Structure formats: structure tokens, C-alpha cells
Amino acid sequence: MTFTTDEDALRLMLNDAATGQPEMPVDRFTSVRRRHVRRRTAQASVAVAAAIAVVAGVVAVGSPLHTRAAQPTANQKVPSWALPWSDHRAGVPQKILDGAVNAWRHMSDPALYGGSLPFVQHVVWYAGNYAARGEVVAAIFEVDTGTQHRLVGAWATTDAVAHGQPSQQSSSPWVIYDVAAPNPTHFRGIVGLNVHGTTPPADAGNPDNWIVLLGPPSGTEAYVGIGRTVRLDHGFTIFDSGQLTTVSGPIEASVRDAHGRYPAGGNVGLPGSHDSEVPQLPQVTLDGVSLAAKDLGMMSGQGSAVNQDESSTYAGPTTIYARCRGGAAQSLRVSIDTDRPNRGVV
């Protein structure tokens, strides 16, 4: 039986004892141009990018702390249940990465652990690195809870976790993806994350998508399904995949070793986690829409909801133009003043 070390137990106690409320992380709601905008909310039914403009007219909808030494040059020693892959942690204080583990504990499904928080017996680290020019912290690790083996991917905006903010609150800055750990004997896939920073390029509305790509240590390069071949350092890399104007779904990658063999491949994300496979999409533009002089504002974003909440003294009719980057089967809902009588979904 594997026991929790005193060091691990102390870390968990300190994280659980942390108090305070972190600020809401900067995520996918960008490029909001505010003027005298009437209160309204636009909601999308799937994780897609959307843009909405409102003009006067008639309502209409168109389509530096201590860090542990990593072992990136060879396979690290891991338990039999874990992937025999290298530890690529570099630069990120371990206290921040421990916060990712604690966030995972508090965001896990209690039904998997008898109705309580999972107990961490052992953590195997694969990645703990900065991405997006330092604006993001990304982590990949496996956990033994005594009853479950879990593979976890986590990322957060650096400013939201770098100053001792608590990680276990309901508004945790960490984005967590959690799946059952794959069988290391038979697994031939990859593990990855799609992340994005807070600063978009000068010629774009949304930040670039960045890919964290992890595979077996024998990997020397990977072909990525956006027309890119990237070098791997013992099966690992982090790179800027840019503005994905031709992509709306998962990004595939194939890992190649020095002998020309392909030991691993799959979608960038955690195996079995669809949400982790969704990349950051470029900002949607309303091509062909001529905004009138009484233009009230525009907003765009990505996710299950794009919303803006403001008020205006303007009381006339409005026209709403909306565009979604999703496929033909996607739908777009627009709701206006849902907290007032006789208002609702359009």
C-alpha cells in the first residue's frame, strides 16, 4: 500500500486552510466595445465562437518560489499504473502546481470517491510549464487516490494563481480536465491541452491558441493537423498554433520517433475529454453588416454563452446581427432583458 508522505500531507493541509476569494479568471469573453448598450444577453447552445452587433432598428437575428528538478532527458521512475513518460516541469513554482492538484480535488465528482473529496496518495508529474509567453500555467499529472487512477490536465491564467490565491474555491481560476488514467501497457495516444493567454495579436481580436503536446519520450517530432511539424523534446513541446481560421474541431497530432515510426497519435486533449479538445477560435467578424450611426455596441466570445449586461436610456427598437463559427447543425439563441416581465428568448 502506498502512503502519503508528510510533505504531500502538509501541502494539502495548507491548501485546504487557505482563505480568500480569487478574482474571476480572464477567459473567453473578449473584444467588448462598450457604449450606451441596452441590457441584453446572447447565448450559444454549443462551444463555438460568436459575434453580435446591436443597432437601432427592428429586432432580427442573422446567422519565484522553490521548484523541483525535472527529468526531461529520460523516463522517470513511475508506478506500474502510470504512463512511463518523462517529467517536463520547468520554471513554475511547485506551490502553484500543488494548487492545481488541490483544485482538482475540490472539482472532482464526489460520487467517484464515496461522496467525499479524493485522497491523494501519489502524484506523477508530466508537465508544469508556462505557455502563451508566460501568461498561462499548464499542468499534466496522474493521481493515485487509493481507489482511482486519474489523468488530469489543468491550466490557468498566470496572474490568477501566481500570488498565493486559493485554488479550491467555487470560482477557482483553474480549468480542470479529469479522465480515468489510460492503461500504460496498451495506450498509444497523446495527451495535450489547448490553452490561450490574455493578449491577442495586434491584427486579431482573440488570443492565439497554444498547444501543450505530450507523448512517449521516444518522440522527436510531431505532425499537427494544422499543417505544422514541430520538434519534440523527449516527447514534449509547447507551441503557438496561431489563429485557427480553418479549424472548428479537435486538432489531430501524430508523434514520430528517430527511426521513422509513429508510436502515438490522436486528438490534442485528454483521451475521452471532448471539452479539452476544443481550441481557442479566432474572433468572428460580421462581414457584410453595415452598422448604422446609432450603433450601440458589439461583443464577441467563445463558449456556451456570450453575454453582456449594461443599460441605456435608449428606448427604441433594435436590430441584432449574430454570427456563429459552428457548423450548419449548430443553433444560436439570443435573449433580451430576461429579468423583466414580457421579455425572454428570441
Protein architecture, described:
- The chain has 346 residues and is mainly beta.
- Mean pLDDT is 77; it is low at 18-48 and 55-73.
- The chain has three helices and 17 strands.
- It has helices spanning 6-17, 94-107, 158-161, and strands spanning 29-33, 40-56, 122-131, 136-144, 149-157, 175-180, 191-195, 209-214, 219-224, 228-231, 236-242, 252-257, 264-267, 297-308, 318-324, 332-336, 344-345.
- Strands 1, 2, 14, 15, 16 and 17 form a six-stranded antiparallel beta sheet that branches. The chain has a four-stranded antiparallel beta sheet with strand order 3-4-5-6.
- Helix 1 crosses helix 2.
- The protein starts with 5 loop residues before the first helix and ends with a strand.
- 9% of the residues lie in helices and 35% in strands.
- Strand 4 (136-144) and strand 5 (149-157) form a beta hairpin.
Summarize this, please?
With 346 residues, this protein is mainly beta. It has helices at residues 6-17, 94-107, 158-161, and strands at 29-33, 40-56, 122-131, 136-144, 149-157, 175-180, 191-195, 209-214, 219-224, 228-231, 236-242, 252-257, 264-267, 297-308, 318-324, 332-336, 344-345.
Structural class label? mainly beta
CA distance, first residue to last residue: 58 Å
The parts where pLDDT drops under 50 for at least 5 residues are: 18-48, 55-73
Shape annotation? globular
Helical coverage, percent range: under 10%
SS summary, helix count: 3
Q: What kind of assembly state do the chains in view correspond to? A: single chain
Largest sheet: 6 strands, antiparallel
β-strand amount: 25-35%
Mean pLDDT: 77
Order of helices and strands: HEEHEEEHEEEEEEEEEEEE
Question: Got a strand count?
Answer: 17
Nearest-angstrom radius of gyration? 22 Å
